[in-house]
Amino acid sequence: MNPHITKALASLQNAHYAGYFEEMDKIVPAELRTPYNQHKGMFIANSYPFNFYQQLEVFAKDVDKELGKVKPPILNPETPKNQTKMGTPKATYQKPPAIFTAFANPKQDLENLNKEQKGIQKAFLDLDSKDLFKHITSIQTSLEDYFNFLQPYQNRIAIFHYGGHAGSTGITLQDGHLSFEYLAEELVNRNKDSLVLVFLNGCATKAHVKTLFELGVPLVLATEVPIKDDTATLFANKFYENLSKGDTILMAYQSASRFTKAKNSALNFTHLGQINRMSDVIQGVSVQNNAFPWGLYVRDETKKVEEMKLMSIVRTISDNTRGTLTYSETTSQHLKNLTQNAQTRFSRNCQRRLDFAQKKYDNIAEELAILEKSWLDEMDEVRKAQYARRIQNNEQKLNEIDVELQNIEKECQQ
To answer: Which pTM does this prediction carry?
Structure first.
């Protein structure tokens, strides 16, 4: 049995549903994601049937059977990755960016931490189910867990969220209170092209902003003073709810600040929703009395990163991490050059031929991108082989159209 399945079932026997979903998140294949997200949604909403335990047990065993069918990819071992036999760049399926939420509560004295984890999970559930933004969560995070979670998601983590005890010297994991410096270096070095925001939701975490800025992190959400457990959960959940519904990072922060103050009017918070600059961090500027505990710290004001939305983060990471151009991009540039020339020198007949070739190329490229994703998601050996043959046929067609385009260009320039 898969080791993650074994751990999930062990958590289930202890009625630890969160632990079950934490393990299953790592391994559920694409074809079982829909029923899995339904189970997960019931858990998050705290509305599940009396036989929920049995349903989850059966589902875990179904996943284990499905994983047992996985075979090595059917590809020519001599064919380089991302390249066909003809040498044409292949359309590549980009895995979605991710938010990594890590929680630790070794003393079991943070009663609202589980609520915070569920709230963030609920905010990202729809985006996760649509494969737009992956949510990775670790509930009782040890030092080893932290490093193990980061490794397989290299250059995909856009947001890192920590919830638990903290202070100016470090953060607390299940192993105890640890220096934050090396944790930050590991996080940033593995996600240099993707990391946008680090949210340290613990007491007095502003001391770590300078470390993160020096490593190049664009945005940090941190606190300068001790915070209450329930207020921390309230603010974090509202922030991510706003972000998942289309707010910019700045707007989500400001709105969550106002919401938190409205819920805690007796605390008389002041200076809500203000941006803190890098210069403030370097100079050690302190907040005024009763100022709102959470600050949004911006490393470079000119880049306006705080005005990004989740979907703009998706597009930015896709651009940063793409190793090769897709068919549609290479074709678009090639045909753009031809079209510009056609407007001045080519005949109408040439233009019609170019338009027709462009349409054929784009249609096949679009179909190829779908086939590529289906091939990646498919677990059945026979169907995977069928997808591989169709991909090869489409690649051959694209090569033929590329030759046709070059011939049209030569003929029309004569």
So the answer is: 0.60
